Amino acid sequence: MFDIVVVYDDTPPAGNEIKNIVGDRSFGSIIFQKKSLKEHMTDAIAASACVKEVLVWDDFETLGVFLEKLNGFTSQTPVLHVYSDSVVAGREDFEVLLQKVRFVKDNLTVTAGRLTALVFRDIQEYIRFLQQCMVSKDTKQLPEFMQFEALKSDALISVSDPDVFLRYITKGFDTRFFNLLAGDDYIVTKTSTNKQKIKSEYTYYHLLPDAMKIWFVMPFDYKEDDKSARYSMERFHITDLATKWVNNSISISEFEKILTMAFAFIKSRSKKAVTHEEYVREQRCLYVEKLDARIGQIKQSGIYPAISDYILRGTPYGSIDDIVAEYKALYELIRKKNKFEAASVIGHGDLCFSNMLYHGETSTMKFIDVKGALKEEEMWTDPYYDLAKLSHSICGLYDFFNSNLYEVRLDADLTFRLEIDFDNSEYTEVFKRFLAENGYEYAAVRLFEASLFLSMIPLHVDHPKKVFGFLLNAVKILKGVRQCLKK
């Protein structure tokens, strides 16, 4: 009995239908539930005590070097070769598979409808296999001179089929800590101990004007007990926009199509006139008073002293109060410069990419995870709020924070810099054009977006790096707003 080597093979190509969802990338680099598929798999492998080492291989050009590394292992070491278009279907079944590999006497194909992995009884057999792959450039083309026994296992499933891939990836709603999503291929059931929130999400849809319901996934079968509440929804086998966005699979032309649909919703929102005083009060409640309350919360947090020190030492500001003071000064300038229409609309309340399901070929866009309402008057909000939420995905790259695809760097002058490996400048220009064409001020949208990032800080104290990332992003947005106002 030997500990095993697991090789993660990231050479299988994705088909065109999957590339339309996630872009031209390998399966291993696809982002799902805040991590790449490679990280999901290697985390599952590393959890087993019987694994000697995990090796990742992704390029036939480096196969020669990879073979040399394999020669460093004991010749009798068994190998599990896992394809990157396979995902773990169950942790317990996967652990059973890993344990079985330790005792194999024959080479095996592991299947669950499709080929998901190969097992080799020793390193020398595996090297013979890879040497043939150097010629064929295809690790799924099994050499005729090698014999394989068949092993059916539910430990892994192949997501190379577009329908299976969609079913897998659309189960990845980014739920908050109090939510639980369950169901099957046709229905999603959302459960929470926060009964009022679940009831308000359910009630919101049924309070909507009929003309707006087309944009939302309909909740049904509301139930509650002493501990929790739940409702069900149809499962749409289409991805949310955040998945496509962080995988860099949205072209400019597709982005224009997406914004055309999003602004069709913006224009469809029911609107009513309010007094000037009512409008000013609603704006201040959303963009000033809410911010003050959230800043008060972060000051009570245990991480606040460290955050405060980072602000003082690594940003142009002396404290978080200085940042808020600049925000408020810009808020007053925006209020004086722009003549906002005294109106209120029925809004989504959280119109970010992760809450927008989208399928380009069928021109389908559906919204989930609304803010919610228990009565009709709770549905009304400032017309800019949905746009600020949309902007914090497009311009503020919020979904990259949510997927942990950002870094906080310390520059040579000892100031902190936020780094996100994604150029959204062209997308931002398209968004600015849509805003202007629909009568909205870009500077105002961005300023209100800055309040969103600052207000989110106390909600993420369990992730201090994200807290500081949000703060640096807000500082960057404020700088951009100042530049806009100078023009």
Q: Concise description?
A:
With 487 residues, the protein is α+β, with helices and mostly antiparallel strands.
Commentary on this structure:
- The chain is globular, with a radius of gyration of 26 Å.
- It has helices at residues 16-22, 37-46, 63-70, 91-101, 123-136, 162-169, 195-207, 241-246, 252-268, 276-299, 304-314, 320-337, 383-394, 398-402, 425-437, 442-456, 464-486; strands at residues 4-9, 31-32, 35-36, 51-57, 79-83, 86-88, 108-112, 114-120, 149-152, 156-158, 179-183, 187-192, 219-224, 229-234, 271-273, 343-346, 356-359, 364-367, 380-381, 407-410, 416-419.
- The chain folds into three domains: 4-167, Spore Coat Polysaccharide Biosynthesis Protein SpsA, Chain A (Alpha-Beta Complex); 173-234, 2-Layer Sandwich (Phosphorylase Kinase, domain 1); 241-486, Aminoglycoside 3'-phosphotransferase, Chain: A, domain 2.
- The protein is of the alpha+beta class and 487 residues long.
- The strands form seven sheets. It has a six-stranded mixed β-sheet with strand order 4-1-5-8-7-9.
- Helix 9 packs parallel to helix 15.
- The model is unreliable at 172-181 (pLDDT under 50).
Features:
487 residues; alpha+beta; Spore Coat Polysaccharide Biosynthesis Protein SpsA, Chain A; Phosphorylase Kinase, domain 1; 6-stranded mixed beta sheet; 4-stranded antiparallel beta sheet; 17 helices; globular
Write the layout of secondary structure elements.
Blueprint: E1 4-9, H1 16-22, E2 31-32, E3 35-36, H2 37-46, E4 51-57, H3 63-70, E5 79-83, E6 86-88, H4 91-101, E7 108-112, E8 114-120, H5 123-136, E9 149-152, E10 156-158, H6 162-169, E11 179-183, E12 187-192, H7 195-207, E13 219-224, E14 229-234, H8 241-246, H9 252-268, E15 271-273, H10 276-299, H11 304-314, H12 320-337, E16 343-346, E17 356-359, E18 364-367, E19 380-381, H13 383-394, H14 398-402, E20 407-410, E21 416-419, H15 425-437, H16 442-456, H17 464-486
Helix pairs in contact: 3-5, 9-15, 10-16, 12-16, 12-17, 13-16, 16-17
